[in-house]
Design a protein that fits this description.
Helices cover 22% and strands 32% of the residues. With 653 residues, the chain is an alpha+beta fold. Strands 3, 4, 6, 7, 9, 10 and 11 form a 7-stranded mixed sheet that branches. Helix 7 (497-514) runs antiparallel to helix 8 and helix 8 packs antiparallel against helix 9 (534-552). The two termini are 39 Å apart.
Length: 653
């Protein structure tokens, strides 16, 4: 990029003819951007990259998504649509897609478009049915573009397992963008995809491709390096698949069970296709192919109520009350499970629902069991995962072994709790050498008695020796027997920075941990340990509103760490033992559901008022000066007191 201009370049291939072709394309296919727009574009692309890395639970390590040429293939009812991004350095292979009018100098070897499309069907990207019919493409759109940024966060890094550097996208982002339609008749049983190949049968260029059957992804990004046969299941595209076992998607199961076991709650989370639920319930839909937008919410509620009564869960042998926490439509995408954020028409074969059922507990259970009772003729093995503080443990259930059991084998695990932050030890203390004081007091009494004996002309030699011994003893015992007592409130000195950091960190951790409890009474009681005054009621009420949003589709993140970057305390003169702490801290939390984890990191700049109440520190006031979501998938925060003390997974709202 120079001067804000992005133009096609000759690339690494040689040959005067090819160079003239590229040179001829420069004018027609140049994309001009102002410098400021180009800089903005770079920022957006970086933000997109971070968004993917922050939210992704699965990352494709094949590198096919950053191949020089990309083909996105979708098999519809009567045609195959191909969206192609042809790398500028490989245009010779895709010359039949280049409009002749884009060339400054006409080429005699370029036939009319119909003939060029027939030649592309033979030499370019070939699609053949199981009957041997070669599909003839129609060119719907062709134009110069910049390649879509699909860069993996591992691109360019040396992978620890293979010790190979992960592929990177071409430095030159310019591509020839083309949309092609390959019509067919009937419902072919299979399609054969063949890349442009040389006389030796080897592919001429590197192509990364992804295939969908209707709305269902058949594979993740893989390389189209040889002919690949796709067997089509027209009754249920979920089961369409390539003969090559290396060409598959990472999420292949139509049903999955996730058991989250935490100190104060157990969650049973279920992923299932809507179509498979037809085995047990009437979906109540107007059509057999689509879920219309106005049918989404009623169907979601019926599915949640249905699953609430299935797959019984027992916690330490007890049947606890199940709570229907969340029900959401989800999609299987390139980077794992994603929520369907806006109401839209969904195809039944590809529509999936995620349901979360919660059971409240008083502590970390000893045993949790799930009796899975949902199987179909095609679903005889359901992946089941147990996720506890030590991490995930995968297994599966079958009709013959349908009980999923989690047992507590955590030996050294201590559940996080809320502990009051004592004032004692936070402030500088008066240190009293108790033994030395006793010696001094005895010395004073002995000296007074000695002086009285001296005035009466009595011998004082023994008393003088005793006084000397007491002096020596007072000096010798000074560092041995000491006691510390708190300063009176009026004489309390300012908090040093290190002490202010410790006090602020302890109080913030307590507030964050209070929200780990699910029962509202527990949340209030735990907050009261570290928050006082009107602020306690404000934060509690804000948490109740946040909890309502969570029930509507949000997910509460649990704070795992609090890092105090800076804390400077100033004593308040109008109240004893009250300090205003100007603090800068970062809170990092995670929220996990349906087998994947989102990480959130927020930074706060605030003025926190702490005060000694009944011998412990409590937050009595809070003014948020700035709240910044370090994770760029999040927008700027609201800046309220409670917003500074809670983190929401707004992506899932």
């Amino acid at each position: 990029m120079r001067g804000g201009a992005l133009t096609f370049a000759a690339g690494s291939s040689s040959g005067a003819q090819r160079f003239r072709m590229w040179h001829s394309l420069q004018t027609a296919m140049s994309i001009q951007f102002p410098k400021r727009f180009a800089l903005w574009l770079q920022v957006v692309l970086i933000a997109c990259l971070w968004a993917v890395s922050a939210r992704a639970d699965w990352i494709n390590l094949s590198g096919a998504e950053v191949a020089p040429n990309i083909a996105e293939v979708t098999v519809h009812d009567d045609h195959v649509k191909v969206v192609l991004e042809a790398y500028v350095g490989d245009l010779e292979t895709f010359i039949d897609l280049v409009p002749p009018e884009w060339l400054k100098q006409a080429r005699s070897d370029l036939p009319p478009q119909d003939a060029r499309m027939r030649r592309f069907a033979e030499r370019g990207l070939r699609i053949t049915t199981d009957s041997g019919e070669r599909l003839q493409p129609e060119l719907l759109l062709v134009e110069p573009r910049l390649r879509v940024d699909r860069r993996s966060p591992f691109a360019g890094m040396v992978l620890p397992f293979t010790r190979q550097r992960a592929p990177e996208p071409p430095a030159d982002k310019r591509v020839l963008y083309a949309e092609l339609k390959y019509p067919f008749r009937g419902e072919p049983k299979a399609l054969l995809f063949t890349p442009p190949s040389g006389a030796d049968g080897r592919p001429k260029v590197s192509i990364g491709f992804i295939v969908y059957h209707k709305t269902v992804p058949v594979i993740d990004f893989r390389y189209l390096s040889a002919p690949a046969r796709l067997a089509l299941d027209w009754n249920d595209p979920w089961y369409s698949k390539f003969d090559n076992p290396n060409l598959r998607r990472h999420h292949r199961d139509a049903m999955m069970s996730f058991l989250y076991v935490e100190p104060y709650e157990v969650r049973h989370e279920i992923l299932t296709r809507v179509k498979d639920l037809e085995q047990w319930m009437d979906l109540g839909l107007r059509g057999k192919r689509y879920i219309e937008p106005d049918e989404l919410e009623p169907l979601k509620q019926r599915i949640g109520e249905f699953l609430l009564a299935r797959n019984p869960v027992r916690v330490d042998g007890r049947n606890l009350k199940p709570i229907l926490d969340r029900t959401n439509y989800v999609q299987v995408g390139l980077f794992g499970i994603r929520l369907v954020e806006r109401p839209q028409r969904l195809e039944i074969t590809g529509a999936m629902v995620g349901v979360i059922i919660t059971y409240l507990t008083d502590a970390l259970p000893k045993e949790v069991t799930v009796d899975w009772d949902l199987f179909t003729p095609r679903i005889q093995r359901v992946p089941a995962f147990s996720i506890d503080p030590a991490g995930p443990l995968p297994t599966f259930v079958t009709p013959d072994d349908s009980r999923h059991r989690w047992q507590n084998f955590l030996k050294n695990y201590t559940p996080p709790t809320v502990v009051a932050t004592a004032v004692e030890g936070s402030l500088p203390m008066f240190t009293l050498p108790l033994a030395s004081l006793v010696c001094v007091l005895a010395l004073i009494a002995l000296t007074w008695a000695t002086l009285r004996r001296a005035r009466r002309a009595r011998p004082v030699r023994v008393q003088a020796i005793a006084c000397l011994v007491l002096v020596v003893a007072a000096v010798a015992l000074y560092p041995v027997a000491q006691i510390s007592i708190a300063r009176p409130a009026l004489t309390a000195p300012p908090l040093e920075d290190a002490q202010a950091q410790r006090v602020l960190a302890s109080l913030l951790r307590n507030v964050y941990r209070a929200f780990d409890f699910r029962a509202e009474s527990d949340v209030y009681d735990k907050l009261a340990i570290s928050v006082s005054g009107d602020l306690l009621a404000d934060i509690y009420l804000q948490n109740r509103r946040s909890f309502a949003i969570q029930r509507a589709g949000g997910a509460q993140a649990k704070i795992k760490s609090v890092e105090i970057q800076e804390a400077v305390a100033e004593r308040l003169d109008d109240r004893p033992l009250a300090y205003s702490i100007k603090g800068d801290w970062a809170a990092q939390g995670t929220v996990g559901h349906w087998g994947h984890v989102h990480t959130r990191r927020n930074r706060y700049d605030a003025v926190v008022t702490v005060e000694a109440v009944d011998g412990v520190w409590k937050i009595t006031d809070l003014e948020v000066l700035e709240e910044q979501r370090v994770d760029p998938t999040q927008g700027p925060g609201a800046g309220t007191a409670a917003a500074a003390l809670t983190t929401k997974d707004s992506e899932d709202r």
